[in-house]
Write a structure and sequence with these properties.
Elements (H helix, E strand, L loop, with lengths): L2 E5 L3 H11 L4 E4 L3 E5 L5 E4 L2 E9 L2 H5 L12 H12 L9 E9 L4 E6 L8 E3 L5 E3 L2 H8 L7 H9 L13 E3 L4 E5 L6 E4 L11 H19 L6 E4 L4 H13 L6 E6 L9 H11 L2 E6 L8 H9 L8 H4 L1 H8 L4 E3 L4 H5 L4 H8 L3 H15 L4 H11 L7 H14 L14 H6 L2 H13 L5 H10 L1 H15 L4 E3 L5 H8 L7 E2 L2 E2 L1 H6 L6 H4 L8 H12 L2 H10 L6 H14 L5 H29 L7
Parallel strand pairs: 13-14, 13-16, 14-15, 16-17
Antiparallel strand pairs: 1-3, 1-9, 2-3, 4-5, 5-6, 6-7, 7-11, 8-9, 8-10, 11-12, 18-19
């Protein structure tokens, strides 16, 4: 479902919204504010209040207890919210938990209020030119604004350099996003005002003896709140720790319903084939597997199709393939899909604890942890051990010991994969104009000013702007097939519980995410519970990049479209280095190359989007 709101729309904008209303959907226009929803249940009104949006509320009982009509307990989430607002006022919105993106118009007070959920799971975009507009969809908002699309060069510079330090900007000038945990307010004659209404607290660390049971309980509760009592909820299942956890807990929560699981299955020769683990999970819960065969890397045609779907910049190359899972879900009648996205960030691998050990002088314990990881994952450890000592141990910067550690580390590192920072791809003048280096330096300085802390790293990962953008990217693909993605790992109670886990229980004996493995003891198949690795699709992305650039015409298009943005010589050097080596060890540079390809395709479609904008067909009801 999608929605849009325009404040004091002009004639062209009102005509565009009316055209949408003629397509069997709902529009409310009281002369000051025009509100549109793609579903009748997306707009409700009572007295002087009109509420529009999308909501899946996880604290219904608590929210209702603060005041609502008796009938609200049996109503939809949107109806329940409106009932509380009528009694408590607009500030009650700040007490909501769950996934929501809402707009409230108070006709009596002539006040428009928008609010986005605490973790930014559901999107909300805004514009203030030529009039104030709010929407759940960026393309829809662009269409209704009727304004030409102009690339935001700062956003493009950040994207190419891998800088993700803001949630507000989009790829287009004059179109922004409402950040997570923010509300926006507008009244006639004033500008749109935005403010944060909630911040994730950094909890006290819990005792080690209760952490396992606390995480188990929080996980089960999060899954219980996410699923509905029917057979239309399915679960993505990759065979990894996160998706397997959700599948098993979802099956336990609904023992009378056979859970549909959706999985990609690869060729036996692919290093990322996870069929064994998928089969183990499905067998343990008597699932109804939906297997989607993958015969190789995505074709080059997958990129323009992804750009057209996303409209905005996209940080997920895997989506060229994984968007197929939503089509499969739609074909099998699955309307809601559990997704383990965010599990890595919410649970945490615990690697920040290694920095804590080095900083606290616990060198023996650090060495044991790294040796344990080497045994489990089959990776060398001595180079990493020296790197942690060099970066975090309390050694004077110019001490003989620190210089010796750095010298040995550099000797060991010789011959490693060709890789360069993403920022090095940018044209020097372009970098300077958009202040990319200064912002990277500032971010590094802020990190360096704090002593190592696994909990702080954990908190930073959970609250990163990257997460908000990832939710938006995934939702666009899901909504294209009328599927609602669900993210149990981002239930607030689970996030706060995981942040309170002691550092030494996130990484133990070399096992990352130890707390989740222990919390799922006796619930997950042991082959999954103690699985040391997870699929790495870097090789798949590398093969796509090399295949795309193997065509001289496409390669020349990339260079021409990104003229003045990237350095063509550095781009060529990177391409030749990857083509000569043809392995996936230089994952950073591979992702940077893919971003270059994406932006080039995106630029190629902006002209077409502007033509459709002029014709009034940029966004159409599906």
């Amino acid at each position: 479902m999608q929605f849009a709101v325009l404040a004091e729309p002009n004639e062209d904008q009102r005509a565009r919204m009316t055209a949408l209303a003629n397509a069997q959907v709902t529009v409310v226009d009281d002369g000051t504010v025009a509100i549109w929803s793609s579903a009748p249940q997306g707009i409700i009104a009572q007295d002087d209040l009109i509420l529009c949006g999308i909501a899946r509320i996880s604290n219904r009982d608590e929210f209702l207890s603060q005041g609502a009509a008796a009938s609200a307990a049996q109503s939809t989430d949107l109806e329940m919210i409106l009932s509380v607002l009528l009694m408590r006022g607009v500030d009650a919105l700040e007490d909501l938990q769950g996934q929501f993106s809402l707009v409230l118009w108070d006709k009596a007070d002539q006040r428009l209020t928008a609010i986005r959920d605490r973790f930014g799971v559901l999107p909300c975009f805004w514009t203030a030119e030529p009039v104030v507009g709010l929407s759940s969809d960026l393309r829809l908002l662009s269409h209704l604004s009727a304004r030409p699309l102009q690339p935001d060069m700062q956003s493009l510079a950040d994207y190419l350099a891998g800088v993700e330090d803001t949630e507000i900007r989009t790829a287009f000038e004059g179109l922004g996003r409402l950040p997570k945990a923010h509300r926006a307010t507008w009244v006639p004659g004033a500008e749109l005002q935005r403010q944060r209404y909630w911040s994730l607290p950094l909890p006290n660390v819990m005792s080690a003896d209760r952490s396992i049971s606390a995480v188990t309980h929080a996980l089960k509760s999060a899954v219980d709140r996410s699923i509905a009592a029917d057979d239309q909820t399915g679960c993505m299942l990759s065979g990894g720790l996160d998706s397997s956890t959700l599948a098993v807990l979802a099956a336990q929560a609904q023992p009378s319903t056979t859970l549909k699981t959706l999985s990609f299955v690869y060729r036996d020769t692919d290093s990322y084939n996870e069929r064994q683990f998928i089969d183990d999970v499905n067998a343990s819960i008597s699932a109804e597997p939906i297997l989607i065969p993958i015969d190789g890397p995505p074709s080059v045609d997958a990129l323009p199709a992804l750009v057209e779907e996303q409209f905005e910049l996209c940080t997920a190359p895997g989506l060229m393939k994984s968007r197929r899972i939503y089509a499969a879900a739609q074909e099998r009648g699955v309307t809601r899909l559990l997704d383990g996205h965010g599990g890595d960030e919410v649970i945490s691998h615990g690697y920040g604890w290694q920095a804590e050990l080095a900083a606290n002088g616990q060198y023996g314990r650090l060495l044991r942890e790294m040796r344990g990881a080497a045994r489990i994952y089959g990776t060398p450890y001595f180079e990493n051990y020296l790197a942690f000592l060099f970066n975090y141990a309390p050694l004077a910067k110019r001490s003989v010991l620190r210089r010796a550690i750095g010298f040995v580390g550099r000797r060991i590192s010789r011959g490693k994969a060709y890789d360069v920072p993403a920022v090095q791809f940018l044209d020097d003048a372009f970098r300077k104009t958009h202040g990319v280096d200064d912002r990277i330096a500032k971010a590094q300085e802020e990190t360096a000013n704090h002593p190592p802390s696994e909990q702080r790293d954990h908190f930073r990962n959970v609250t990163s702007p990257v997460m908000t953008r990832a939710f938006e990217v995934l939702r666009r693909s899901a909504q294209a097939h009328d599927v609602e993605p669900l993210y149990p790992f981002f239930e607030q109670a689970l996030v706060e519980t995981c942040l309170a886990v002691p550092s030494e229980q996130k990484l133990r004996g070399g096992w990352s995410r130890w707390i989740l493995r222990e919390a799922m003891d006796g619930i997950l198949p042991r082959t999954i519970q103690w699985r040391p690795d997870k699929a790495d699709f870097s090789a798949e992305v590398l093969h796509f990049v090399l295949d795309y650039l193997s065509d001289p015409y496409r390669k020349q298009n990339v260079v021409e479209r990104l003229e003045g943005m990237i350095d063509p010589d550095r781009f060529e050097a990177a391409h030749q280095a990857l083509a000569a080596k043809e392995d996936d060890s230089a994952t950073g540079i591979t992702l940077t190359m893919w971003r270059c390809l994406y932006v080039a395709e995106w630029f190629g479609q902006v002209a077409d989007w502007n033509a459709r904008q002029t014709a009034g067909t940029l966004w159409q009801v599906h």
